[in-house]
Design a protein that fits this description.
With about 500 residues, the chain is of the alpha/beta class. It folds into three domains: about 90 residues, Winged helix-like DNA-binding domain superfamily/Winged helix DNA-binding domain (Arc Repressor Mutant, subunit A); about 120 residues, Aspartate Aminotransferase, domain 1, CATH 3.90.1150; about 240 residues, Type I PLP-dependent aspartate aminotransferase-like (Major domain) (Aspartate Aminotransferase, domain 2), CATH 3.40.640.10. About 40% of the residues lie in helices and about 15% in strands. Helix 5 packs antiparallel against helix 9, helix 8 packs parallel to helix 9 and helix 8 crosses helix 12.
């Protein structure tokens, strides 16, 4: 009798593959609601996970994840050799069906009032795949952590604490530790052809802080910003959050289409761009298009914020010269991050700014956050000065190329007809395209349940044209891990 009642109560459960909510979470919510509403009573035996999975046409792992969470929270209990039952300990006062007395009508709660800023972030990041504590293939924006010289970093850290005990505890210069600014300036002049002096370098916590600082200093609410489409959703959120007018500009084989931007928003005050390695598609902005953008910026008195995303990891030739190095009008602000080169928990990035903006940006930085970690700046300065930084980049560049080739090779064997992936000359991820119209968000949800991480290309699109595909990171995973994970991804595509 108990089994029959369970099957009747669970017969109405239907899961929607189109939703952004994972399937196991949908199932968890429906079973939990059935228990709280009295449709599933205390002691009721649930169908076996294998049978239940077949009825719902989902993987057994989906059912198991839902059951496990309900057991942890006390709604279900498992009996060895017997099955899974609704717990006897669910309080009767919570069960709406067990009302022998008239129910008490509670006032409807008022909708939660959020700030406009919170509404923007909630909307932009509603389908964003958050970084996981346990990194899994094919997570993006994670470098080759297995190649990082931990022993060297620890040695330099210990030396810093011994050599600068007081300095490590003080506030420090809000523009950053001077030896680090000097080391970065020399590196950028040599490797990125940047016009850069140490007093133009400002150390910040991360790229998003840099975007926020630039916007606060140069823009007023309602000002226009050009952004590449598809482009960085975190940066889009910063601009929308502050009330700026974001205009998505499509890119082509030569990069951002300047003529399109001039027609769509000729009065824009800022252009956010990733010219050396377009994020997320990986194209490179041509010299002609770069010069065209700088000419428009000069004539319109606008600004360019150049995010030099992953430019260090170029496999063909040397890293490209920066856009900032072509600027003769001091209208380009250069932005670089170190966490994607070294390790994610290193909250250090930097800006190279025109001399006239150093004071305003530094003052604004003091007002909202003062300075970044002094100990990490000291260690990083020594890390660069002693040559470890350059050696690490060269080693990781070779590893990334090998791991990209491993992913391409495995994809040719396992993903033929399901996903087309082309090699890139730079970066730490590849873009896969579907041969037919496929919901990339649904595929990513299935991949997550299969034990791998994929990122939907559609979530980076801001305009009317929605591109669908998958972003697949490879830098953080060995060739063996990649070859083992690709078949799991293939299951998500069938």
């Amino acid at each position: 009798m108990a089994r029959q009642s369970a099957e009747i109560a669970l017969a109405g459960i239907a899961l929607d593959q189109r939703l952004s909510i994972p399937l196991y979470r949908q199932l968890y919510n429906k079973i939990r609601n059935s228990i709280l509403q009295g449709q599933l009573r205390n002691g009721t035996r649930l169908p076996a996970s294998r049978i239940f999975a077949e009825q719902l046409n989902v993987s057994r792992n989906t059912v198991t994840l839902a059951f496990d969470q309900l057991v942890i929270e006390g709604y279900l209990k498992g009996k060895i050799g017997s099955g899974t039952y609704v717990s006897d300990d669910v309080p009767e006062r919570l069960l709406q069906a067990s009302i022998g007395k008239p129910s008490v009508t509670l006032p409807c709660p008022r909708p939660l009032k959020l700030s406009n800023r919170a509404e923007v972030f909630s909307r932009v990041f509603s389908l964003y795949n958050k970084q996981l504590e346990n990194i899994r293939p094919f997570q993006i924006d994670v470098p080759a952590l297995d190649a990082f010289p931990y022993d060297v970093w620890m040695k330099l850290t210990n030396q810093a604490w011994r050599s600068y005990p007081r300095l490590t505890l003080e506030y420090g210069d809000p523009e950053g530790y001077k030896p680090l600014r000097e080391a970065l300036a020399e590196y950028l002049r040599m490797h990125r052809a940047a016009h850069c002096e140490p007093d133009q370098v400002i150390i910040i916590d991360n790229s998003q802080q840099g975007v926020d600082l630039v916007a606060r200093v140069l823009l007023e609410p309602g000002d226009g910003v050009w952004m590449e489409d598809p482009g960085c959703i975190e940066t889009q959120a910063v601009f929308l959050n502050a009330g700026y007018r974001v205009t998505p500009i499509a890119i082509d084989a030569e990069g951002l289409q300047v003529e399109v931007g001039k027609k769509k928003d000729p009065k824009a005050r800022l252009v956010y761009i990733t010219p050396s390695y377009q994020y997320p598609l990986g194209s490179t902005m041509s010299l002609a298009r770069r010069l065209q953008l700088l000419e428009w910026v000069r004539a319109s008195r606008a600004w360019v914020l150049e995010d030099d995303y992953d430019s260090e990891f170029r496999f063909v030739g040397h890293p490209l010269a920066s856009l900032q190095g072509l600027d003769v009008d001091n209208r380009v602000i250069y932005l670089g991050t170190l966490s994607r080169i070294l390790f994610p928990s290193l909250h250090l990035a930097y800006m190279v700014v025109p001399h006239a903006l150093v004071g305003p940006l530094s003052a604004t930085k003091v007002a909202i956050g003062r300075q970044s970690s002094i100990i990490d700046q000291i260690v990083l300065a020594r890390f660069i000065e002693e040559g470890h930084f350059g050696r690490h980049i060269r080693r990781v560049r070779v590893l990334c190329q090998e791991r990209q080739e491993a992913l391409l090779d495995a994809a040719r064997r396992e993903l033929g007809g399901l996903l087309t992936i082309k090699p890139m000359q730079c970066g730490m991820h590849l873009v896969g395209r579907f041969p037919r119209n496929v919901d990339d968000r649904c595929v990513c949800e299935k991949a997550n349940l299969s034990g791998v991480v994929a990122h939907p290309l559609s979530q980076y699109c801001m305009g009317k044209k929605i591109e669908r595909g998958l972003l697949l990171g490879f830098a953080a995973f060995t060739e063996r891990e990649i070859r083992k994970a690709v078949p799991l991804l293939a299951k998500s595509l069938t």
